[in-house]
Amino acid sequence: MFRITRLLKTIASIGHGLAVFVFLLLLAVFIRQADLMIKNSIVTSALSTIFFPAQYIIASIDDYYGKSSENEKLKRENAELRVELYRAKEGLKELSRLHELVRFEDTWDYPIVTARVVGRNPGRFLTTFVINRGKHHGLKEEMPVFSMRGLVGKISKVEWKHATVQLLVDPNLKLSVMEKRTRAVGILEFVNGRNLSAMIPTNAGVKMGDTLITSGLGGIYPKGIEVGVVNVIHKSDLEVMRNMEVLPFQEFSLLEEVFVMQKEPDWIVREMLK
Amino acid sequence: MIWQWIRFPLLFLVAVVMQTTVSKWIRIFDIGPDFIIIFIVLIALRRGPVVGALWGFFAGFALDVYAPVEWLGAHTISMVVLGFFVGQLEERFLTLNLGMKIGVLGLGFFVCDIVYYIAVGFDRGVVFNLLLTQTLPESLYTMICGGVAFKFLFAGNLKNKHV
Fold it and tell me: Which chain A residue has its CA at the smallest distance from B122's CA?
């Protein structure tokens, strides 16, 4: 034991730690260059063992801090919601009449699972978070996740009792969106590390302040979930398309509770994902 | 003896808790300090390049686990580089005043971010944009918070002391 310690100390002292540095750097580069499957297994095993309980403790501290202010906010919201409830009941009656009229298919008729955010990535960009619901609660990959304000993202990985949510601000997530007023369809993605950006045909006449919703194309997200509002319109290299900065309806770093829609992707998308 | 073993893991835990809670509460215009980098710089200055690189590896990996899986390893690489190079200015051999330490922290933050952006594979234009809009203000904010930590929590110099 003593010899091993002495050997390690000798190796560590080579070149004022250069040997250790090179070893660690090579190991890190190996992880960086590894196959996606190996990366996934590394992350899954780390999340399921050391990091999940640690994040749960951190989330509890955060949760405790936010409780009193949240209580006040909830009381205020409660009063507002009572008023809105009355209006909504009236609206529902009107909606059911309209449904009968236009034979509107109720595509949002999916069970909803409520989940609490128990872990966030503390790194440079917030792109994913962990929720306290998993396979045990009926969740599967690719299920849409949303909050009271609008779309949050989708489930990217599911464990037995927790799952990882890939947020809209993940550069690897692309989403088909529709502008609410003009019904123009475009693609939304997180491009330069800071802004959500949408590409929408120029002739659609989309203006600043217009609202984007999910288009329902692609088969993962149902049509009509609010995504964000057009904040800035840039001229694009392509004359036919306009590049627009989109302001999401929510601050992703402040989300505490989300809803998961138990909607599985349509079969065409499943085939594409294989 | 036990304190010597657990103080750095404890400090790391405090840094992670602060990064995921306090950092969020004190954000100004979506810019917040990075307590993990303060921790790595502090450890590297106190204990040298080997310990700095080791803790850089561990802390970087912890950050990577919660980043997109395609970028796994990018934080690890940048933090190992940060820990090793800052560790070359180990306090046992060099005397650094508070201003120098804060300067090292700011420079370390910049280098760490550049290595990270390169490791992730961002385009040059995006890197330049991020350096101006994110790295620069965040490094300044981190320097302020790091200065407070160096001044009040970890004052004193370890030159000629072997701890």
Answer: A192
